[in-house]
Amino acid sequence: METKKANWLQELQPGDEVVIRGTQGYGRRDKIRKVSRLTKSQIIVEMMMRENRFSRETGREIGARGQSHFLSLEPLTPEMRLLIQTFDLVDQVLYAAKHIQTATLKSRTPEELQQFLAQIRRITGQVQEQEP
Length: 132
Known about the structure:
Elements: H1 2-11, E1 17-24, E2 27-38, E3 42-47, E4 50-55, E5 69-75, H2 78-98, H3 102-106, H4 110-124
Antiparallel strand pairs: 1-2, 1-5, 2-3, 3-4
């Protein structure tokens, strides 16, 4: 398995998509990023307006920021892409839901609010209450 990963790391080219697998504190976060450039010993990936450098031998981040922060490169599979996209969308939905303002809801029609409530109940598995 390690030989397979080592071969994959050596074959990477600028523009290839990779998974940045990371741990930070108690959490874990995987992101899809593109390889921006290569050196003889490093793979450089642009993340959040800065470059992260990874070893071409191991895929581990060079100059990691401590024991609780660790990044490594992994191949991007179709299953991993779907999983990361799903988690990113869940984060966006939760963020949007947390920031809904009462005034925004009050400006909607009763029909829109009923549709919105029905979608929430369907997603959360709540049984829709019977109307009197």
